[in-house]
Specification:
Blueprint: E1 20-30, E2 35-40, E3 46-52, H1 55-63, E4 70-75, E5 83-88, E6 91-99, E7 107-115, E8 127-129
Parallel strand pairs: 2-8
Antiparallel strand pairs: 1-2, 1-3, 1-5, 3-4, 4-7, 5-6, 6-7
């Protein structure tokens, strides 16, 4: 009788194609000009896997008093604790949580909620999107 080769690695994760470009921002406050600054954490855009959350996932998040409607998967970056928001397809997404998948340094799963009204360079006089700068 032939042996079947089954995948016994139950923790193996599905391969995701990172084919979308996103900009990840951190937030700082400029006391001199009384303006909130959104500064990109990377000089260019970051490749990401993007998907809308299912209705079940959205309801589960609401039970935890969390609003989430989109998921981004990006390669690991050590500065993820400073992330505040993401711009994807012209929509600003506020980051609600970052999952490091058991502390491994492979990928980060970022959950966010979208707010179309909050993005725009001229919508709010107290918000300014700036270019990337070294820290």
């Amino acid at each position: 009788m032939a042996k079947h080769s089954y995948n016994t690695n139950a923790t193996r994760r599905r391969k995701r194609i990172k084919d979308k470009k996103i900009t990840i921002y951190t937030k700082e406050w400029d006391n001199k000009n009384d303006v909130r600054l959104y500064i990109p954490v990377h000089p260019g855009k970051v490749w990401a896997y993007v998907r809308q959350l299912s209705g079940e996932e959205v309801l589960f998040a609401k039970q935890r008093d969390n609003v989430e409607d989109i998921q981004f998967v990006v390669n690991y970056r050590p500065d993820y604790a400073d992330w505040y928001g993401i711009i994807y397809n012209g929509i600003y997404y506020h980051i609600t949580r970052v999952d490091t998948y058991e502390g491994y340094k492979g990928e980060l799963t970022v959950y966010a909620s979208g707010d179309v009204r909050s993005y725009g360079k001229n919508n709010n006089p107290h918000v300014k999107y700036v270019e990337y700068r070294e820290r």
